[in-house]
Amino acid sequence: MSTKRPRVLVLICSHRPGALGPAIGQWLIEACTARAAQLGVELVPVTVDLPFLDEAEHPSSGIYQHEHTRQWSAIVDAADGFVAVTPEYNYGMPATLKNALDHLSAEWAWKPIGFVSYGHTSAGTRSVQHAKQVVTTLRMVPVGATVAIRIGDAVHDGRLRPDPARDAAGVAVLDELVRLAYALHPMRERTRAGSMPGPLPGSYVRRLTPDDAPQVTVLQRCCWVDEAVLNDRLDIPALHETLDDVRGWLADWHTTGIWRDGRLLGMVRTRPDGTDLHLGRLAVAPDVRGQGLGRWLLRAAEAAAAAEQDLHRILLFTGANSKRNIDLYRSEGYQPVAFPCPEGTVSLAKDLPGVYRA
Fold it and tell me: Do both 171 and 307 map to the same domain?
């Protein structure tokens, strides 16, 4: 679940003089444009045109010396899936496609790929079989639906003849590709740049962004229902914020999230205000409570704050009747303080290490 539109790259794998690849790629985009709009998918044609692999480091290192590799990395990394429009050369895929795949490693992982092949005797299907051996090694997932175009039957004067059945087959490739892209999202999420191992087996931690607003909204509504019951009040912002509200504060606060398999398990947000660090929205999904996630998030926020020389204390508030929360904070050294806070809540604070109070 994301607010980002899925991006599907249509890879044009042959562009030599007289190649059919550009015309077939254009057909595919035209045939799928209406369906892509219904699915909320961005279709992007990309001509595969890289020099032969010339990087000193192995692609798995992610260390790229050349600008063309860095650009290719950014293009592929931003995509959620691919359709390769490929001819068949001598029972295999063209060198352009193989070279493009070999340039990168992690950027391809856990993304679906479909194929539109073209050729003479086999309609390019042997190229697809060759490519599948390579893409699965890169942890890509080929879709089952394909389009195979026999040039002698489908092409006239360098253009594709109209064919409603072929159009429907192209749409079927897109449909299956998008379904797989969503299904594989948790696997891609695990490998996002900036992710670090989390406190539970298989979990990982990263900073949340406005794109994470849907998951954050679900998590906080699950968590603050208990707070509403305990404190006999429904005017809790976390229960009423819209997606736009959540996107707004995610852009302003530093928010850390614990994830597992693409699911947000817990979060905490912080923001400096003078010499205070305001801490809030400490939340853990109800079904994984009691495993130390809340305490881990609290300590992670404190460790980050301690590295900032201008901050003197951490300040937070919670429901006046939220005994479990108050017990957690007091066990971690937080004490009640006089500080303006919403009605029905209490303020607690903790001095950061090294801060002397007269």
Answer: no
d(CA 1, CA 5): 10
Tokens standing for 25? 């790629």
What is the domain-level CATH number for residue 317?
A: 3.40.630.30
Residues 6+ apart with CB under 8 A from 81: 6, 7, 8, 9, 111, 112, 113, 114, 177, 178, 180, 181
In angstroms, the first-to-last Cα distance of the chain is 50
Six-digit token pair at 20? 């059919």
Domain span holding position 232: 196-351
Packing angle between helix 95-102 and helix 125-137, nearest 10 degrees? 10
The verdict on residue 144 lying in a domain is: yes
Provide the H-helix boundaries in the chain. Answer: 21-39, 67-77, 95-102, 125-137, 151-154, 164-183, 185-190, 213-231, 237-240, 243-252, 293-306, 323-331
DSSP letters for 301-333: HHHHHHT-TT--EEEEEEETT-HHHHHHHHHTT
pTM above the 0.90 mark? no
Q: Which of 175, 190, 205 is the last residue of a domain?
A: 190
Residue 90 covered by a domain: yes
β partners of residue 42: 7
Residue ranges for the chain with pLDDT beneath 50: 1-2, 355-358
Q: Count the residues in the chain.
A: 358
Plot region of 293 (φ>0 → left; ψ -120 to 50 → alpha; else → beta): alpha
